[in-house]
Amino acid sequence: xxxINRKIEKTLAWIANIxxxxxxxxxxxxxxxxxxxxxxxxxxxxxxLLSSFVDTFFLYTKIDSYxxxxxFIKIIKLSALLIALIALLATFTxxxxxxxxxxxxxxxxxxxxxxxxxxxxxxLLYFIVAIMxxxxxx
Length: 138
Prior knowledge:
Elements: H1 7-28, H2 33-40, H3 43-49, H4 52-61, H5 65-92, H6 97-115, H7 120-135
C-alpha cells in the first residue's frame, strides 16, 4: 500500500502559520496596540462598563477601566500565542492525520471566534487543511 504525500497540506499549513506567527509577533511588539484599544473603546463596550453590574465589580475590586482594558489586551495576546503554538503542534504532527485534522479544525473555529472575520486567510487555510486531512486517507 502506497502512502500519500502530504506536501499540499503541509504547504497550506505553513503559509497560514507564517501569517499567524507574523501577526502574533506584531501584536507583541505593539503594532496593533491602538487597534486593540479601539476595540474596547467602542460605544457598546463603554455602555457595558457603565452598567450597574460592572460598577459594583469596580467598587469591590478597586480596578479602574483602563486596567481592565489592558488585562483584556493581554488575554488576547496570550490566546493568539497559544493558537500559534497549537498550530505548530498540528503542523508537526501531520503524520497522525486525525489528531492533526481535529487540531486544525479547532484552530479554524477558534480563530473565527476570536477575530470575527479579520483573519480570513488563516482560518480558511486551516479549514482546508483539516478537510484534506480527513478526506485523504493515508
